[in-house]
Amino acid sequence: KAVVSTQSTGEFKEQRENPDENEEWAEFTDEEGYGRYLDLHEAYDQFVNLKHATKIDYLTYLTSFDRFFEFPKEKKLTSDYKKYLGTLRDYLVGFMERINPLMNFEKERERIHDDFEEKWEMGTFPGWGRDPTSAMKTGNILDLTPFDSPEELASLGLDRLKTALQALNLKCGGTLMERAQRLFSTKGRDLNDLDPSVYAKSKKSMEESVRQQEVALLEAFVYHYTELLSEQRAGTRENVERRQARTADEVDDDEDEDVVEEDDDDEDVVPYNPKNLPLGWDGKPIPYWLYKLHGLNLYFNCEICGNFKYRGPKAFQRHFAEWRHAHGMRCLNIPNTAHFANVTLIEDARALWEKIRAEKNKEKFQKEYEEEFEDSHGNVVSRKVFNDLKRQGLL
Prior knowledge:
Blueprint: E1 2-3, H1 9-17, E2 24-25, H2 41-48, H3 58-64, H4 79-99, H5 105-122, H6 134-139, H7 150-154, H8 158-167, H9 176-184, H10 202-228, H11 230-244, H12 248-262, H13 288-293, E3 299-302, E4 308-311, H14 313-318, H15 323-331, H16 346-362, H17 367-370, E5 372-374, E6 380-382, H18 383-391
Parallel strand pairs: 1-2
Antiparallel strand pairs: 3-4, 5-6
């Protein structure tokens, strides 16, 4: 019986070293991390060596290895491409068998076949669309029921006989009478009973169709199992990015830590963290100097955000442009402009908004004092003075 363990790493390693006689443990490579990640290096090596493949790095390959529809159809019929698909399919199926041995793989295989056959018949399988000329050829098939002799067929002309022969995948050359006799010989007969010599590349076309279907079926398997392993695929990409970002010293340190962890029985114990420091990407507390450098020991309260507390000055300054602060300002009917940067109290925000509105009102055009009039002597006065002089009869 196969066993999939959900235990901690320490218990898992201990049981691997002292296995039960009746248990058969799944084998994983170091790259696979006990079933958490995919190891597609073998398939990647075959892909980059394909004659017409675009040379990409391993990280890009993890994102695009199932985009078979981007590969030219005429380049998919090579033996190297089929071998590459077989390697990729075998690995994905084998990986799924190791991490989920209780899955009904026979049922999955039948489901893939049924779905593939349906899409293939409809011509909707990705990357293998039906030839647009096939519908035209089907429409050119000629009904031979009204014709009793090759001579009657010959009356249709060379072009019509040619299209009718092409629709049946028969040779379309020769004189008018030869074409009519060749077409009339199919009347009332099964095409499979005809002489193979009358077919135009019949065997070659059939063999090519079979090869296309075999290659497309391999792609269908990869599509299906890639979807089932989407979580492991995303984790693999993140793991590769993280490993590529490490320096040589960090790699050496990790190797030294792995050696120490093999002898450590308490490796799954919660890390010692008396100062309650934030945890880094490795699950361990960040250094105290880094904690102080970023000011993570400081908390900033914002009343506009509903008394939400921000840890560190960097997060505090960034929050003024984020949705929480913008929503609080919108509830106060105050625009979230640069004037209100570093304003966290509702009272201060409202007072500043009233001050800004008052200043804007002062800048508005006031007819009473700023509109100018000219009297009969050419003197320029304001509107108010002009009206006063007019009422006094001095104008």
